[in-house]
Known about the structure:
By secondary structure, the chain is mainly α. The chain is built from five helices and no strands. α1 (22-51) runs antiparallel to α4 (135-165), α1 packs parallel to α5 and α3 packs antiparallel against α4 (135-165). The longest helix has 35 residues, at 93-127.
Amino acid sequence: MPTADVPAFDQNTPREASFKNAGTVGMILFLAALFMLFAASLLAYVMVRLNGVNAPAPGTIHLPGLLWLSTAMVIGVSVALTIATRQIREGKHRSYRKSLTAATALALGFLTVQAPAMVNLLSQHASLRGTNVRIYGLIFFLILLHALHVLGGMIVLVVVTVKAHRGAYERPVVNPDAAPPASAPSSEPTPGGSLNYEPAPVKVTPEDLGHDPIRHTTLYWHFLDAVWIVMFTVFLSLR
């Protein structure tokens, strides 16, 4: 059962550098590879738009208005995940689960809004097929490329959110090597000859509590957010 908001760890506890976490390093390398993919694709679009044969005149490309709404939604996903990670650090379990749910809903909304916008681009591409103008098809391809990565991120986000509601990221952590408490230790020896005592709780970080999946998901969505903003800005600038 979900627990109430309680501090998970001392906020003054120093946090270890992210690069000591192999999973985080792997995620950064993965995002670096995706960056090269999107950067090369956008560069190709810019070259075709500026120097391509039969390229439409400047200011004549009509982008679906729904792309503005989808932009607001993908930014909302990043905002919600940022809030969730802050709430995790503060130990606000109930609050961060709500923020993850909001992020999931916004991600679903993004994909829902993108679908008719992409259909609109395909119809414009089909209407100009006889004129040998392919720019709408290229815009469709770039948006589809981004949408496929959003779909993958959506699946991971749903899994993380479901696990969060099941309390998967709230397991207690104790220090098995802690010294016995100073007050009233048990006088009964264990079979090994030492005294019985309860392990003392320790100051923990989000990494200790198993929050890496949430942190990595947040990092991935921040990347998708940045890619979309750059992509949409290029489309608007080169209409």
